[in-house]
Design brief:
The chain is of the alpha/beta class. 52% of the residues lie in helices and 14% in strands. It has 13 helices and 8 strands. The protein has an 8-stranded parallel beta barrel, surrounded by 7 helices. Helix 1 packs antiparallel against helix 12, helix 6 packs parallel to helix 7 and helix 8 runs parallel beside helix 9.
Amino acid sequence: MLGPVILAASRSDKMRRIVSAAPVTKPVVNRFIPGETVDQVIPIVEELTQAGLEVTLDVVGEDITEVAQSYAARDAYLRLIERLAELGLGEKAEMSVKLSMFGQALEGGHELALANVRPVVEAAAAIGTTVTLDAEDHTTLDSMFAIHEELRRDFPQTGCVIQAYLFRTEADARRLAAAGSRVRIVKGAYKEPAEVAYQDKAEIDKAYVRIMKILMEGEGYPMIGSHDPRLIAIGQELARQAGRKLDEYEFQMLYGIRSEEHLRLAAEGHRMRVYTAYGTDWYGYFMRRLAEKPANLLFFLRSMITKN
């Protein structure tokens, strides 16, 4: 299984230097990360929204080591929100944030991350949009859920992410599937031990379906994060069985993956949101995209062979 190996490499400084230095890397990275600055990504947002799609934006970078970096992350999101406001894109573009980028892993990190993310959530609300808290490895989740609960007291539209491969997630889904909640379900893209997570793809898929059913039958707003045609079809059927209208749930996929499917779902009347990352610290995000699907890794390797 190459996935766990790639995930381990995503935390390796040595591999970061090797991959970053490879001449072919940047053109391949551009498939998944269309820019490094706000100015570079805004035209992509305009293009996607004009095509009938919605967007969630992620400023990449999570393994910070200094408090000053957490303030820089906060300010990067605030600049993004300013640009979205200027262009009137608030209703079509939301933000996704990783609390590790806001200082969660530093000393006093829970309070630091909450203090940094709150002004971002407040600014997003002011322009008619919202923020979703991304899930990271299992050791960070209790803090993430506590911050999510705290933010929802003033900004109930704040979303969060749950990961199907974790044993705990079905219970989390039942707790979160309440009126007014916004919950994105994904399979999970971190290297987790067998003590806390399913390791077999078939078991992860079964858990994903069980969790989708919980969310669809709940009172919240499910966001189905998957590129798997079978899971998407099951999600549509579960929504139908639950009596949900097309605007009472949405699908989410990554920028650069199955783009034709994005347009097909939107044309059918589904809400389809494209998860679009940008920034200079792209390495960890890029490696997890390779680990998620063998086709992504093959695409990278073929590019290296072709270019060399």
